[in-house]
Amino acid sequence: MVWFNSLTSTTPIFTGSSFNIPNLTTSTTYYVMASVNGCLEGERKPVVATINNIPTITTTTNTTICDAGIATLKATASEGTLNWYESLTSSDYITTGNTFETPFISESKTYYVEAVSNGCVSNQRTPVQAIVQYTKTPINLNLSISEFQIIDNANNNSITIKNASDFGNDDYTFAIDNIDGPYQESPTFENLIPGFHTIFILDNTVCGVDQIVIPILGFPKYFTPNNDGFNDTWQLKGFSTDFYPVSEIFIFNRFGKLMGKLDATNNNSWNGIFNGKILPSSDYWFTVKLTNTDGLITNYKGHFSLLRQ
């Protein structure tokens, strides 16, 4: 076998059945022919020495998750397929592709990725971090109570963020009354007791949290003024001048006589006493007119029981 570096070359570069090519930087075509007694006439067959590029990792994306969960790691390569590994020296890869979703993790962990193209492997595995962060950073989402739908004084009190998608394209979850959660994807909280509730909105991409206090109005069905420190007065739940700067609250007996007038400042509860006289157990009625910070007026009517033991 005689080898040439071109189809028309008259000078052989090697003779033999196996030709060890020199160091190449680009793919190169050689030509080989069968030769008897040194004859250089005959058909030459092309043999291509293909040089494949060694792929490289071009970008990686670390991911931060809050508290615990599943992290999505990303990487790209100059060419080829991406293999993800548990460690720098793991023999078996976990999965392939530009995106890798980790198992559920509760502490930070480093995974490794390499690129493979036409049998060539990137020079070294590249670390990609899944970062678990427990400290939440305060952020400012310019929250306003007008962004929330509030259903109160009902069998199922609830708070809903009207347009949760308006926060942007980040990954948001929501919690109530505890900055540590649990957090949920739904922007609605139901079956809430009357009073003040704190809504926490967590941006999971940066572990940043903002919060806002939301009132749930409620009118107790009874109270027991026996000075035991529990339920001794009747008052509106979820009521303050921060949310209702103007208020008119009147309490009447069953004959329509005014027994008391309440407001959200120093006189926000009734103890069952009228003109210094302790009133007996009975049913009482109330009317409420509240004006919120947007000037919206809401009226309520109802009744409750005074119970003495």
Structure, explained:
This protein is mainly β and 309 residues long. It folds into 4 domains: 51 residues, no CATH class; 77 residues, Immunoglobulin-like (Sandwich); 80 residues, Immunoglobulin-like (Sandwich), CATH 2.60.40; 85 residues, Immunoglobulin-like. A hairpin with a 6-residue loop joins strand 15 and strand 16. The chain is built from no helices and 27 strands. It is 0% helix and 43% strand. The strands form 7 sheets. Strands 6, 8, 9, 11, 12 and 13 form a 6-stranded mixed β-sheet that branches.
Compose a concise summary of this entry.
The chain is mainly β and 309 residues long.
Strand fraction equals 35-45%
Number of helices: 0
Radius of gyration: 38 Å
The beta-strand count equals 27
Question: How much helix, percentage-wise, in residues?
Answer: under 10%
Judging by the overall fold, what is the CATH architecture of the largest domain? Sandwich
Q: What is the CATH domain class of the largest domain? A: Mainly Beta
Number of domains: 4
Query: Per CATH, what is the topology of the largest domain?
Result: Immunoglobulin-like
SSE string, helix = H, strand = E?
EEEEEEEEEEEEEEEEEEEEEEEEEEE
Shape: rod-shaped
Low-confidence stretches: none
Largest sheet: 6 strands, mixed
Structural class: mainly beta
